[in-house]
């Protein structure tokens, strides 16, 4: 049996990304990992059905990671057994003109899952303290009243933005949203391998852009920003999990297992029972149908 220990991945104290693993050996053959994932995601899918019927919690799954970390394929494999009505996936790209006319959290607020559903954010509100922090000139496009030049995008600005994000998550958690935040920890060497694979495979070329290489040149800057994100925003109600991402099958099983283990702690998530008066008449309803 493959044992995934949640606490091994949860960010509960200050960390340095350089000291975390990007590869984990689950000490099992690929076939066993695949079988374990199939079993775990089936259980997670059944739990989602119960969550839907219960209707009092939503689940928000946030996925962050460097380019080629495996977010898309993880979503495809982990949520394969979900009822389509119970899950919505949002892939956040560069903000549109309409989105820029609102505060930066607006497009994330309106994409939040309803109670009873899972919502997956493929890239998240954290892009607003990652990409924009590496490229502070992007903030000028938000037309903020107190930001007139890049010099105004200072540490005080980022402190305020971190406070806003923490408050956003605290608010939705207090109102019934269970939050999972996964950082897919990809090594620079493995990213290179995956980007080369994209270039060498005609059916993967569409995923590549020259800008990917420009962003790769800023790897160290992104690592520093991710480190700050993990250390400043991992909270009991919205924890971060650092998932070794160099091994895709292991990463998928780890994410799926963490969600299942944590959700099973909610003992109040149960299918609602029939009204006693209706329940007492079930034999009558069965008889009525059988006599048609």
What does this structure look like?
The protein has a single domain (6-290), classed as 3-Layer(aba) Sandwich (Rossmann fold), CATH 3.40.50. Helices cover 45% and strands 11% of the residues. The chain has helices spanning 30-54, 71-78, 97-100, 106-109, 131-134, 155-174, 188-200, 210-216, 219-233, 248-263, 276-280, 282-290; strands at residues 58-65, 87-91, 118-122, 177-185, 240-244. It has a 5-stranded parallel β-sheet with strand order 2-3-1-4-5, sandwiched between helices. The longest helix has 25 residues, at 30-54. It is globular, with a radius of gyration of 22 Å. The model has no long low-confidence stretch (mean pLDDT 95).
The portion of residues forming beta strands comes to: 5-15%
N-to-C SSE string, H for helix and E for strand: HEHEHHEHHEHHHEHHH
What is the terminal separation in angstroms?
Answer: 50 Å
**Sheet with most strands:** 5 strands, parallel
What percentage of residues falls in helices of 4 or more residues?
A: 40-55%
Mean pLDDT: 95
Morphology call? globular
Instruction: List the strand order in the largest sheet.
Output: 2-3-1-4-5
- CATH-defined architecture: 3-Layer(aba) Sandwich
CATH superfamily: P-loop containing nucleotide triphosphate hydrolases
Number of spatially distinct domains: 1
Q: How many helix segments?
A: 12
- List unreliable stretches of 5+ residues: none
Give a count of the beta strands, DSSP E runs of length 2 or more: 5
